[in-house]
Design a protein that fits this description.
single chain, about 210 residues, transmembrane
């Protein structure tokens, strides 16, 4: 279970990439006071955790409702994770998460941006959701489910800490440092995407025999 904990934590952290959200968070909160920015970071972490927990435990039922097989989910999820990784490598993290100039301008006018666009779609998106649904099916025991749930809670706390420290991280690492880290994570994420696509194809072919 310890191996599962760290494997899921590393993969999910790479797919979510909260460090890549730092410049976007700062761009959306230029006039916020420190308490306001901290409150937004805290609410974003809570919403992020609830969204991922919800999809993790209810994702399989949602797939069954729409008649989507898990092998198809693996392939589609692999494509989304691969696309997310490419966005990180190409330096288009925000654009890949559907955050464009119009969304940023709208966010500047809103009182609360913690749920949308920060928690979703910036941090929790199709890549992380499909990854968690796959993990739910690959590790069917309740012990494994609790381990993955603990990872989600921990990651939500890390999201809060990273966004709360966004200004300091940006000062220390700078735009270049954050992009360099994103590119490294992008390579890992693309590898995960390819792995899940291959696994989905193998499973689908096996079921057709």
């Amino acid at each position: 279970m310890i191996e599962l904990f760290f494997a899921v934590l590393g993969a999910l952290f790479s797919v979510v990439n909260p460090l890549g959200a730092v410049p976007v968070f700062l761009a959306m909160t230029p006039d916020y006071t420190v308490p306001e920015r901290n409150s937004t970071a805290r609410s974003t972490g809570v919403y992020f955790t609830l969204i991922l927990l919800g999809f993790f435990f209810a994702g399989t039922q949602i797939l069954e409702f729409f008649g989507i097989h898990i092998s198809a989910m693996r392939i589609a999820g692999g494509v989304m994770i691969l696309s997310s990784g490419y966005g990180l490598i190409s330096g288009k993290f925000a654009e890949n998460r559907a955050i464009n100039k119009e969304v940023e301008e709208e966010a500047l006018k809103r009182q609360d941006i913690s749920f949308a666009p920060l928690a979703m779609p910036l941090l929790s998106g199709p890549g992380s959701i499909s990854y968690l649904i796959t993990q739910y099916n690959e590790n069917p025991s309740w012990e494994a489910h609790l381990v993955v749930a603990a990872v989600i809670v921990l990651l939500g706390f890390l999201v809060y800490l990273i966004l709360r420290s966004a200004r300091y991280l940006y000062t220390i690492l700078g735009e270049a440092g954050l992009k360099a880290l994103s590119r490294v994570m992008g390579f890992i994420v693309m590898s995960l995407g390819v792995q899940y696509m291959i696994a989905g194809v193998i499973q689908l072919v096996g079921e057709m025999k």
